[in-house]
Amino acid sequence: MAGMPIWYELMTSDPAAVAGFYRATLGWTVPPQGEAMPNGVHYGQIARADGSSAGGVLTLSAEMQACGARTRWIPYFDVEDVDAAAAEVERLGGSVQMPPVSLEGVGRMAMLGDPQGAPFYLMAPTPPPGQPDAKSDAFDPVKAGHCRWNELNTTDAAGALAFYEALLGWTRGMAMPMGEAGDYQFVEHDGIALGAVNPVREGPSYWLPIFGVADIEAARAAAAETGGRITVDLQEIPGGEFALNVDDPGGAALGFVGPKGGSQ
Fold this sequence. Notes:
Elements: E1 5-12, H1 15-26, E2 35-36, E3 42-47, E4 53-59, H2 62-66, E5 72-78, H3 82-91, E6 95-103, E7 107-113, E8 119-125, E9 147-154, H4 157-168, E10 171-177, E11 183-189, E12 192-199, E13 206-212, H5 216-225, E14 229-236, E15 242-247, E16 253-258
Parallel strand pairs: 1-4, 5-8, 9-12, 13-16
Antiparallel strand pairs: 1-5, 2-3, 3-4, 6-7, 7-8, 9-13, 10-11, 11-12, 14-15, 15-16
């Protein structure tokens, strides 16, 4: 469905060095080295425990890093017309970081930046052969092992909200006052809660994927034991679950959300 998150890409210089972290915390299998793509990059699919894909991993080369690419997670959002949407991004004050390109059997995509600089992809995916109605389940607002929440940390919350509302048709849900920083504003699409816009005073704007886990305390322990760094410790959230933010061993920021004690 246009406007929905459909994929998550981990950009990292050494997939093998972070594989143990993701296996221990989420039960994922991160390939140590992806396949060479026509454009020369190495890309692999991250497998969930159920055999489906959680997202992809792109190996950052030294040349990519010299050009400014850095370790991070980046979301993909579904659109019907990538070229038209990329042009709209520029009209709305964003930037085109990778012009639209088509990959056989995958779809057409472009890498963009919002007006505050947070990178993201837009994609018109090609369904698998014989499955014209297939849909990505990389995002699921309730299931462990999937991305459950998409948090945009941005230095201009009002501007970011206006941008994504115009580009992807998102609407605003409930808001949680954050004092002088402003509101933690939930965003929705077609009645589905996608995540929130989180106002920050400084630093780069970026998307933070928050992945579901069956036991938040076990995930916290596993993250610490496999080289992760806790950046925001356990906090209770509306609904009685708990969340925390971490950097993986390579430095990519992400979050976990789930119940204590595996009571989900």
